[in-house]
Amino acid sequence: MRITSLEEYGLRCALQLAKFKKKSTLVSASQIAELEGLSVEYVSKIMHLFRKAGVVESTRGIQGGFSLAKMPTDFSVKEILDVFAVTQKGNDDLQGFCTNHAGTQSECVHKSQCSIRPVWVHIFDVFDRVLCSITLENLLEGSSALSEKIRSVNFAEQTKEERK
Amino acid sequence: MRITSLEEYGLRCALQLAKFKKKSTLVSASQIAELEGLSVEYVSKIMHLFRKAGVVESTRGIQGGFSLAKMPTDFSVKEILDVFAVTQKGNDDLQGFCTNHAGTQSECVHKSQCSIRPVWVHIFDVFDRVLCSITLENLLEGSSALSEKIRSVNFAEQTKEERK
DNA sequence: TTAAAACATCACAAATTTGTATTGATTAGC
DNA sequence: GCTAATCAATACAAATTTGTGATGTTTTAA
């Protein structure tokens, strides 16, 4: 269970974008690179993914830069992380769980009775509730506010799968 | 945020081990490979990791095989997944979060004021509470029992970090 | 109109993970 | 003792992810 590099750095960049958004100023890839200690090329790649996903808007030319597409209060952490999930192979939407196999067989041997899938469904449901409820603004507010926010998440309700 | 292949297949193998444990019989790598549709070599690798971590005990020779070191009621899912975390680079114990960088700098630019670390601390705390509370036995019991189990997890209490 | 600063896109090298192969050691049964 | 089945350990090839490079386009301002 790991956070990919793109997710970690992507979220950091998103936080920088959030700060500049609140000041209503554009921020360039090189500025973010400087602030985060990353290479300009790497930040550019992240911004490219953000733009394709509609997370940022870009302005070309000298004095150009990037701007978060919505206010930090309106972006959940999940929305940011999902930008990178699509480029990854085994991602958290449970797609591919039962099709990717190191294996001697072309189809999942648990097709009819899979004991693993419900586990991930439930665990990722908990995870999603947390990630959906936290906004970029919450992250900017600091640790104790974040902690409070997480405590307020409702974990008791039915999962999507169960409602089907 | 993704589950690695070793984690997914490792947990499946652990479930097979749990079933045989309840029958008090040894199970060989080739048997598990057959049951899970994996190659014998791959299962052997997983068993090797399990044994090094003390999750299974092995018996050599013809009629040898593997046996879960404790009963399925006494193994949490987290204990199983942690076996594979140690072989991975960025793992869920938060080690390395602030030392691995795609970067132009040798140290984390957020050393003094990191806005990302508290996020992962909190999120992984929630995750750990779930993974620690689910046993292999719970997984064998099926989806609805599992669902109930997850609902009973206490998410409100302080995190380890906060108690420090 | 030219130059500089910035984004856009794609290609590619390095690192990591994934899965297989190989060789060796151990045990049971004949 | 010999053989077959099994675990033990390590090496290695393929696939994937990670991060950089190179080339081109757009815009502003002198």
Explain the overall architecture.
The structure is a homodimer of 164-residue chains. The first copy, chain A, is mostly helical. The first copy, chain A, has 8 helices and 2 strands, in the order H-H-H-E-E-H-H-H-H-H. In chain A, strands 1-2 form a two-stranded antiparallel sheet. In chain A, strand 1 and strand 2 form a beta hairpin. Chain A is globular, with a radius of gyration of 19 Å. About 3% of the residues of chain A have low confidence. At the A-B interface, helix 1, helix 2, helix 4, helix 5 and helix 7 of A face helix 1, helix 2, helix 4, helix 5 and helix 7 of B. Chain A binds a DNA duplex (30 and 30 nucleotides) through helix 3.
Layout of SSEs?
The structure is a homodimer of 164-residue chains.
Chain A (H helix, E strand, L loop, with lengths): L4 H18 L6 H8 L3 H13 L3 E4 L5 E4 L8 H9 L31 H17 L2 H6 L1 H9 L8 H4 L1
Antiparallel strand pairs in A: 1-2
Helix pairs in contact in A: 1-4, 2-3
Chain A binds a DNA duplex (30 and 30 nucleotides) through α3.
Q: State the secondary-structure class of chain A.
A: mainly alpha
CATH superfamily of chain A: Winged helix-like DNA-binding domain superfamily/Winged helix DNA-binding domain
The low-pLDDT segments of chain A are 91-95
Average pLDDT of chain A:
83
CATH C-level class of chain A is Mainly Alpha
The dominant shape of chain A is globular
Q: How many beta-strand elements of chain A?
A: 2
- Give the spatial strand order of the biggest sheet of chain A: 1-2
User: What's the CATH architecture name of chain A?
Assistant: Orthogonal Bundle
Distance between the termini of chain A: 27 Å
Query: What can be said about the biggest beta sheet of chain A?
Result: 2 strands, antiparallel
Oligomeric organization of the protein chains: homodimer
Q: Please give the most extensive interface between any two protein chains, plus how many residues each contributes.
A: A-B, 61 and 61 residues
Q: What does the radius of gyration of chain A come to?
A: 19 Å
Amount of helix of chain A: 40-55%
Order of helices and strands of chain A: HHHEEHHHHH
CATH fold category name of chain A = Arc Repressor Mutant, subunit A
